[in-house]
Amino acid sequence: MKPHAEIAEVWPRDGRVRLVGHIHGHPAEGQWRLLLTRRSHAEQRLDYPAQVKGDRFEGELPVADLAAATDIAETEIGAGVENGAGVEEWDIHLTDGEVELRAGRRLDDIHGKKKIMVFPEQRVRGIGVRPYYTVKDNLSLECRTGAST
Description:
mainly beta, 7-stranded mixed barrel, 49% strand, globular
């Protein structure tokens, strides 16, 4: 299995998303950060400190930063629309500056988390932010305008 950041806990509350997990398949030495990459604009990135002890990591990100960075333009609202909402997605990695480990949950033998695990949405400035698992069991963030789903 490829090295990755194995997610053990996701805590979306109080205006933050807190992530706890383990570095799997890669040495855990050095300074690590949570890295968010906007899927539609890969050059747009946000990063936050991650505390690493042994192979365990922990970090959090403020939802307001995602709402501010996600400028879903009126022209984009016609594409990628579900229930009248514009959607932007952010992928989560753990990085030490040299390697980027994709955050996900693969070691639990539960496949298809996208349809099984649903996290609550937090709303800031008209943008709803919600963690979700992708079809490959990676963890990403969805930012949605309009009514919450």
